[in-house]
Amino acid sequence: MAVENRTPVTVIGLGLMGQALAGAFLKAGHPTTVWNRSAEKAADLVSEGAVLAPSAEDAVKASGLVVLCVTDYDVVHTVLDPLSGELSGKTLVNLTSGHSEGARETAEWAAKLGAAYLDGAIMAIPPVIGTEHAVLLYAGSKEVYDANESALQAVAPAGTTHLGEDHGLASLYDVALLGIMWGVLNSFLHGAALLGAANVKASTFAPFANNWIGAVTNFVTAYAGQIDEGDFTAHDATIDTHLATMIHLIHESEATGISPELPEFVKALTDRAVAAGQNGLSYAAMIDQFRKPSK
Ligand SMILES: NC(=O)c1ccc[n+]([C@@H]2O[C@H](COP(=O)([O-])OP(=O)(O)OC[C@H]3O[C@@H](n4cnc5c(N)ncnc54)[C@H](OP(=O)(O)O)[C@@H]3O)[C@@H](O)[C@H]2O)c1
Fold first, then answer.
1. Do 36 and 155 belong together in one domain?
2. Which of 74, 189, 193, 253 could pair with 260 in a Cys bridge, judged by C-beta atoms 3.0 to 4.6 Å apart?
3. Gyration radius of the chain over CA positions
């Protein structure tokens, strides 16, 4: 139910994520207008109080704040380019996943049309949108962010953050964080395969994995300080010590008949650091292998 003085919001794109976003705005009391190419996806939202606009143009006209969540940036332009005459004075918040270059280009395009633009990244899945577990990252003008922060908190009440004025930052954080997710998940899957070969269930291994992932967060904090200061003194273990243990992991993988590809890749990076004379340094010095890739 709409609450007096809540900012009217339009949500364009009612896929799995767009429906969750619109639902969160509605629940927080924002008058919410929605539009989707396939109108039937608005049915539940309409029954909860959303207004289904008959066209994307009507949807844009309905609110000063227009949230976009479609497949990709090409779709954003497919929907909005024909409405370029309607966008002056609007605030566009693009929560569509993309890359930093696309975000910066879209910000320039919006500015030429007289629209304010925030680019956003959703670090959450639809069921947690609107809860304290949702994390949404925004990039663009701080002034525009501040003016809309209160409304945007409807979708992430405890996790709404402005990263900076560079519109590309949300996409960069997004892919960097997803990279961490895949790194952790692939390592877990490799470990679960290794222990599975010894008849240990993945669910038995999982609490040990989670506890260790928690410990690794302390390494991240310490190594971030070393990277920023450029001081790679080994306070915990040297790269040599890490390398010796990696060789054990490759050996165990080969001995149990599971794929050694992941630890072999990690070892290849570490071998390069050793070849560069970094063997006595902190593991944080491995940042050079990412800053100066061999290929
Ligand atoms: N789902 C997640 O967990 C999650 C998490 C973080 C970020 N995201 C990002 O959120 C965005 C949407 O994801 P989603 O899960 O909602 O995807 P989805 O369920 O596949 O929805 C895609 C949306 O884009 C619309 N669309 C596609 N092509 C179109 C076109 N040519 N013209 C007009 N509309 C078009 C679809 O309309 P129709 O309904 O008519 O097909 C639908 O509203 C993506 O960029 C995704 O990466 C999603």
1. yes
2. 253
3. 24
